[in-house]
Amino acid sequence: MQFDAPAGSNIFDDARIVGKSTPRIDGPNKVTGTAPYAYERHDVVADQAYGWIVGAGIAKGRITSMELTAAKAAPGVIAIVTAPDTQPVGKGMDNHAPLFGGSEITHYHQAIACVVAETFEQARAAAALIDTNYDRSTGSFDFDAVRASAPRSGEAETLGDFETAFAEAAVQIDETYTTPGQTHAMMEPLATIAAWDGDKLTLWTSNQMITWAKESLGDILGIDSANVRVDSPYVGGGFGGKLFIRADAVLAALASKAAKRPVKIMMQRPLVANNATHRQATHQRIRLGARMDGHITALSHQNWSYNVEGASGETATAQTAKVYAGANRLTAEYCATLDLPEGNAMRAPGEAVGHLALEVAMDELAEALGMDPIELRVVNEPDAVPGNPGKRFSDRNLVRCLREGADRFGWSERSATPAARREGRWLFGVGVAAGYRGAPTCKSGARVHLADGRIVVETDMTDIGTGTYTIIAQTAAEMMGVPLDHVTVTLGDSSFPASAGSGGQWGATSSTAGVYAACVALRRQIGEVLGFDADDARFEDGSIVAANKAFRLADAGTLSAEDTIRFGKFKKDYDVATYAGHFCEVAVDAYTGETHIRRMLAVCDAGRILNPLSARSQVIGAMVMAAGAALTEELTVDTRFGCFVNHDLAGYEVPVHADIPHQEVIFLDTLDEIVSPMKAKGVGELGICGPGAAIANAIYNATGIRVRDYPLTLDKYLDRLPAIA
Amino acid sequence: MKAFTYERATSPEQAAAAVAGRDGAKFIAGGTNLLDLMKLQIEAPTHLVDLQDLGLDKIDATRDGGLRIGALVTNTALASDDRVRAQYGVLTRAIVAGASGQLRNKATTAGNLLQRTRCPYFYDTNLPCNKRAPGSGCAAAEGFSRQLAVIGTSDQCIATYPGDMAIALRLLDATVETVMPDGTGRSIALADFHRLPGDQPWLDNTLAEGELIISVTLPKPIGGRHIYRKVRDRRSYAFALVSVAAVLHDDGTGRVAFGGVAHKPWRSEEAEALLPQGAGAVVERAFAGAAPTDDNKFKITLADRTLASVIAEARS
Ligand SMILES: Cc1cc2nc3c(=O)[nH]c(=O)nc-3n(C[C@H](O)[C@H](O)[C@H](O)COP(=O)(O)OP(=O)(O)OC[C@H]3O[C@@H](n4cnc5c(N)ncnc54)[C@H](O)[C@@H]3O)c2cc1C
Ligand code: SF4
Fold first, then answer.
1. Which one of A7, A348, A506, B207 is CB 3.0 to 4.6 Å from B211, fit for a cystine?
2. pLDDT digits 0-9 by tens, B206-217
3. Is there a contact between B312 and A121 if contact means CB atoms under 8 Å apart?
4. Is A646–B126 a contact, with Cβ atoms under 8 angstroms apart?
5. Each residue's pLDDT tens digit, A682-695
6. Cα–Cα dist A345/A307, whole Å
């Protein structure tokens, strides 16, 4: 099915199942342990051996020797695959750091061996017996040291004459904000079971993008990707860290070949931060020039980041072109090359940290103008994409998000003067931020089977904890007129039709649209079998009404249909995005500077919300992650050793329940006709775009202290808190 | 983790002898610290002597009005004991400020005292660390030291004792009773139990090889307001940046001990005598001679401000 024009009215406008809060159908399996994650798939293949990954102990240099005698002789050891004895494997999609093979070390904890043994404990113990010697070379690990000389990546985007307009602006803000590296810290680390059958390879793994995974494995291993099957029905969180193939899958495949047995590997938690990918640190300079009435006349956002050779930085300016009006503009990205681990996608890449700067700069501008921060944003609401009058916003309700949020949150009670509200030892403050996140779509296919009046859906789409099973079941149930429990959804298998996969918050709307397309095809087949015009029929409660005649779905027998939704060029005339107003109240301890979040609110504009229950979970989860980014999360680089030192969950502090006492999410009742037949946009990344800045602005409102280096830990402002008696 | 043998001790004396008589033997109590370290091969005992059958899990009144806490009493049991809650509130508060419910259910009194540092370099066997690999150097001294000690450090090691319970025990003048491998016993004041790193940073405490803790004794209650304030980056499940244990009396006198600042619970009787003069005077004296790094010098300001907050709370 080709989606070539705005959606117009369709079945989902009168939906009975789609758009209704529906508990996730895989929920009972998950809470009873019967939804197995990759490492727990004990039943898929017999005789699984355990692999343990050895990470390099240096960040740059060469392996000069690896002594394996003791390890090979250790109890239970079946095979040891080492990097020096392996030809470097190829690279798949978006692999920049080497995955495995050869003696060259380019980053800390790069995989240098995999030990396979009968038990996990034996593999681990044997791995500790490997004695590796290195020839270290000096590397470049210090972002601050190289930042100033980082080359620009891509063209700078300019509009009008920024410098002149900024110089002439009545009010100017010129501030620099920094964000540190972050790790995905998904609950399920990267994990894979691999088994060979002749030249056919099956991987039971944890991956967000099945089609990419399958194709990449062909390139990486130098085999025909047609011989690869990837299966990933449950993913315990990915956040972008599982978009591409990483060492767990490569080593499972290589080790399984060497061991001549299926091999399972879970990347050890302490390796994840340095072996796999992370969100890179940024250094962002924002300049805003405005008239006294608040209109922005000059807007510049420059962002410095880094990556390994040949890969791009964390593009923090991503949202800046679209959020606010302003005739004179300059945005630019600079990317240094460092010998740190590879930077790659993490939830709302670019935007998540871009908002931490831009939305604080807006708060600073509002204060400089003596203007309410919401009014400032409203005044600067653009009519069309700035600098691109031909490009319209498909459906944009940012102002409503902010206004309705303000009502709901009690914004009018905010003191515009900072540090004005104190109760006992607590300083109270509130903050707001806007959120913008693009809503892309990708072609997505599905197959639907009908038998005995029941529906089975097959697509290689993934459920990374997002609720995909449920929204796909809702879509199929709606289309085929059957109750939800008559639909079985099977996901994540590369033998199923290729889907959009889960990433960039495109998954929900694309994959359900693919299922819609397949269901349209199935309805037509049913119409042919039973003799009615499917496009004019109503499918409801297991029956079909067409031209005043009734049919029973079950009478159509056994049928299958497959289709793929493809998105047409007409979308290029639109900026299709999601919007949010984020609000937060904090209390800061006037003595110690500890920040306690008191309540958070997100008002989201994302078109039709397919399942408000799971969409809410997406948004509150993202808000938690934003709170972590604002307050605690930081990969600390040791520039001598070239590694992230705090590479476990004790040292890298994500929020705990006690940090998040109260969250509320409101979805506007909007529809976006441009995005897809579902008129729905994703929310999984919208939720992390803005809340961190709202927290930062609330801390400022509470204390009158502006800290521009994230995370906002108390050591950065303790000496500026009110004097103690 | 290296393979090890295992036995269940039958008496304290037998346990002590079993550990002393064998190279690389160690006691295991709740296992919540030891097993984690064994997985990383930071500890690699060849033999474990399990203490769970020794009946050391009781809290008894002592003749002079205090409490004797068995070495195997869990953190949960100790924190929730009615006598402890009523008369040694600072101890209950310190314990529940630590770890998580599940860990406290497993963690024991002796094991808690002996938990090892949380210095990140201690946990990465690729990196230098004098505490883990004597003579390899101290990566933290010029590295990431935000969490580490500001006082009592040496050029060999700047790690902290990371725990909470011991800060309250130090405040309460607790003593640790032990059994030696030869069957004799001794009593160690908590003040002398943990040691400073000096030039032997691998030694955390003054226990001898095979010396078994059998109990910790609290002297009779001292009254006053009992406060434990733990300042950290998130609201639970994190180690202290700074913690303050205090017992404060209406006349402004009291006791105060600091956690998260040194290789041992940090209390100076001389400094706490200045409590009537306010937090600033106490902290100035208690932290005289501090040698913080750029990363962690905020801890002294934080100690000052936290103590001020504790004093204000006691007054209110
Ligand atoms: C995730 C996490 C978070 C934590 N957070 C905190 C926190 O915030 N605050 C805090 O204070 N603690 C915290 N802890 C540490 C926790 O309190 C300790 O792990 C626990 O108290 C150790 O007790 P255990 O009985 O399990 O000791 P074990 O692990 O069994 O033993 C620890 C050591 O003590 C020795 N030992 C045990 N019993 C005896 C004995 N009777 N005589 C002589 N030697 C003995 C063992 O040989 C071993 O060397 C945390 C731990 C974890 C894993
Ligand atoms: S501070 Fe102590 S524990 Fe940390 S690296 Fe230095 S020697 Fe090791």
1. B207
2. 999 999 999 999
3. no
4. no
5. 999 999 999 999 99
6. 12
User: Is the CB of B306 inside 8 Å of chain A's CB atoms?
Assistant: yes
CB atoms A270 and B123 under 8 Å: yes
Mutation to probe ligand 1, out of B14, B32, B75 (largest number of atoms < 8 A from CB): B32
Atom of ligand 1 nearest to the CA of B97: 8
Using alpha carbons, list the distances in angstroms from residue A653 to A75, A274, A415, A508, A595: 37, 16, 32, 30, 15
The pLDDT assigned to A230 comes to 98
- Report which protein residue has its CA nearest ligand 1's atom 32: B111
- The pLDDT of residue A513 is above 90: yes
Enumerate domains of chain B plus CATH numbers: 5-52 (3.30.43.10), 225-315 (3.30.390.50)
User: A423 to chain B, minimum CA–CA distance in Å?
Assistant: 13
Measured CA to CA, the distance from residue B106 to residue B103 in angstroms comes to 5
| Residue among B11, B14, B112 to mutate when testing ligand 1 (max atoms within 8 A of CB) | B112
ipTM of the complex: 0.97
Chain A residues close to B126, C-beta within 8 Å: 57-58, 641
DSSP string of A120-168, one letter each residue: HHHHHHHHTT-EEEEEE------HHHHHTTPPB-SPPEEES-HHHHHHH
From chain B, pick out residues whose CB is under 8 angstroms from the CB of A124. 1, 39
Task: Give A11-61 pLDDT, tens digit per residue.
Answer: 999 999 999 999 999 999 999 999 999 999 999 999 999 999 999 999 999
Please give the domain boundaries of chain A with CATH numbers for all domains: 2-35+441-571 (3.30.365.10), 44-138+189-270 (3.30.365.10), 394-439+576-725 (3.30.365.10)
Ordered DSSP codes for B13-71: HHHHHHHHTSTTEEEESS-TTHHHHHHTTSS--SEEEE-TTS----EEE-TTS-EEEET
Sorting pLDDT into bands at 50, 70 and 90, what band is A537? very high
Q: B121 CB less than 6 Å from ligand 2?
A: yes
pLDDT category, B197, cuts 50, 70, 90?
very high
Q: Which residues of A636-667 are buried (b: 16+ CB within 10 A; e: fewer)?
A: bbbbebbbbbbbbbbbbbbbbeebbeebbbbb
Average pLDDT over residues A161-185: 98
Inter-chain contact B233–A270, Cβ cutoff 8 Å? no
CA distance B65 to chain A (A): 37
Tell me if B306 and A636 make a contact (CB, 8 A cut-off): no
B94, pLDDT greater than 90: yes
- Taking residues A489-501, report their average pLDDT: 98
Q: How far is CA B241 from CA A711, A720, B163, B230, B247, in A?
A: 15, 18, 11, 8, 20
Instruction: Check pLDDT > 90 for residue A387.
Output: no
Nearest CA in chain A to B316: A424
Backbone φ and ψ of A425, nearest 5°: -85, 0
Question: In terms of pTM, does the model score above 0.80?
Answer: yes
Q: Is the CB of B140 under 6 A from ligand 2?
A: yes
**CA B192 and chain centroid, separation:** 12
pLDDT tens by residue, B219-234: 999 999 999 999 999 9
- Give percent of chain A with pLDDT exceeding 90: 99
Alpha carbon of B306: minimum distance to chain A alpha carbons (Å): 6
- Rounded Cα–Cα distance for residues A219 and A439 (Å): 30
Which of B46, B301, B306, B311 should we substitute to test contact with A (largest number of A Cβ atoms within 10 Å)? B301
List active site positions of A.
Answer: 685
Query: Measured on CA atoms in the order B12, B196, B126, A135, is the torsion positive or negative?
Result: negative
What order of strands is seen across the sheet that includes strand A131-136?
A104-105, A61-67, A131-136
